[in-house]
Design goal:
Blueprint: H1 12-17, H2 23-55, H3 59-84
């Protein structure tokens, strides 16, 4: 993974409110927040893609998918039971 260096200036009051007292802590906090932002963005994009995919489904597609799910429901139940034990 390559890294990029960026320079940002944050108000002291903001860092104090976040209980950040050192540059390393600030870096870790910003990294954490950016990673969470990217994950939420990915989730949102994935959700939109699923919505578009299912909106384009025909009733025939839905019926076939339901049949496949029904065919494998016994295996899902077995795996769930094994996981619980």
């Amino acid at each position: 993974m390559s890294t990029h260096t960026i320079h940002i200036e944050l108000p002291d009051a903001l860092l104090k409110r976040a209980h950040v007292q050192a540059t390393g802590e600030a870096r870790d906090l910003i990294t954490f927040l950016l990673e969470n932002y990217v994950q939420e963005l990915d989730k949102s994009q994935r959700r939109q893609a699923y919505e578009a995919y299912y909106a384009a489904h025909t009733s025939e597609d839905e019926r076939e998918e339901k049949e496949l799910l029904d065919d494998f429901s016994f295996a899902d139940a077995e795996i769930t039971e094994e996981t619980i034990k």
